[in-house]
From TrEMBL:
The lineage of its organism: Bacteria, Bacillati, Actinomycetota, Actinomycetes, Kitasatosporales. It comes from the Bacteria. Part of the ABC transporter FtsEX involved in cellular division. The keyword Translocase does not apply. InterPro entries: ABC3_permease_C (IPR003838), FtsX (IPR004513), FtsX_actino (IPR047929), FtsX_ECD (IPR040690). This is Cell division protein FtsX. Residues 185-302 form the ABC3 transporter permease C-terminal domain. It comes from Streptomyces macrolidinus. Forms a membrane-associated complex with FtsE. It is a multi-pass membrane protein. The keyword Aminoacyl-tRNA synthetase does not apply.
């Protein structure tokens, strides 16, 4: 009988404050969709870091004849065979840092350049002897780039030491910045949602102050009086959480797998799988249920005093 009464009161409260209930649902849905999206973005960035950092190389570019005339680092002339052997020998000794070393000749560099930038006007004027020989070093730990840079920068025959990780760091820095911006918007939306929940509870408690006063006089417990209001907020929040979960699932389905099909168009990006999305849904639903219930509970401590 008591459970039936509580459920009937929940329905009455939701219908009385339909507009505010709708506002709560929308604000909770948007804030939790951003919350879930920020969690998935973090997973995506971490997965991309693990994928790309494992593939980045440190490149030691060697001086050619053109560099000897124009680059201060190559003022002693083009790299000699002796210098190349010495550089390779030193790299092979750095077994604690270096995992693999590969050599790229001028002809190979020219071929790779033509494959990537063959349509550019500059490609037609380049010749193989203008390209740079290089050693491509695969590190055991991508963070140890500075060890290579310190050992080989400024050496005879070395034009520069470049770390591809630096380019990726700029990209991941941008993605992390966007993720924090989304979290800031999410925090503001959560504050708005909490304010709406508190106001909805206030209006509902005020409109039923006579009933709650009578219940208090006849000996009803505080929890029994508060339960319908708390459940109203929880139900509205749960609906919003369900909408947020649906939004994340639809976004993953239509943007990554189908529709825009980014997973097929952007082969260079290793997108997170469905398991990462599905594991976030219980957290979103739990938050959507507990957050409004707790907000309503603390609001009712003041507004249901008779």
């Amino acid at each position: 009988m008591r459970a039936q009464f509580v459920l009937s009161e929940i329905g009455v409260g939701l219908r009385r404050n339909l507009t505010m209930t709708f506002a709560v649902v929308v604000s909770v849905a948007l804030s939790l969709a951003l919350f879930g999206g920020s969690l998935l973005m973090s997973d995506q960035v971490n997965q991309m870091k693990g994928y790309w950092y494992d593939k980045v190389n440190v490149s030691i570019f060697l001086c050619n004849k053109s560099d000897a005339e124009s680059d201060p680092n190559c003022s002693k002339g083009a790299v000699t065979e002796e210098q190349k052997k010495q550089i390779l020998g030193d790299l092979n000794k750095m077994t604690s840092v270096v995992q693999k070393v590969s050599y790229e000749s001028q002809d190979q560099a020219y071929k790779h350049y033509k494959e990537q930038f063959g349509d550019s006007p500059l490609a037609s004027s380049l010749t193989p002897d203008q390209m740079q020989e290089s050693y491509r070093i695969k590190l055991k730990d991508p963070q140890k780039y500075q060890v290579i840079a310190t050992a080989f920068n400024g050496r005879g025959g070395v034009q520069s030491v470049q770390d591809q990780k630096g380019i990726l760091d700029n990209l991941f820095g941008l993605l992390n910045g966007m993720n924090w911006a989304a979290r800031a918007v999410m925090a503001m939306m959560l504050v708005v949602a909490l304010m709406l929940i508190v106001n909805t509870v206030r209006v509902s408690a005020f409109s039923r102050r006579r009933e709650t006063g009578i219940m208090r006089l006849v000996g009803a417990s505080g929890f029994y009086i508060q339960a319908p209001f708390i459940m109203e907020a929880a139900v509205a929040g749960l609906i919003g959480g369900t909408v947020a979960c649906g939004f994340l699932l639809l976004t993953r389905y239509f943007i990554i797998d189908h529709g825009l099909a980014l997973s097929q168009k952007l082969n260079l990006i290793n997108f997170i799988g469905w398991d990462a999305v599905l594991t976030k849904l219980p957290l979103i639903l739990a938050t959507s249920l507990l957050m409004p219930a707790l907000a309503a509970f603390f609001a009712l401590r003041k507004y249901l005093k008779v």
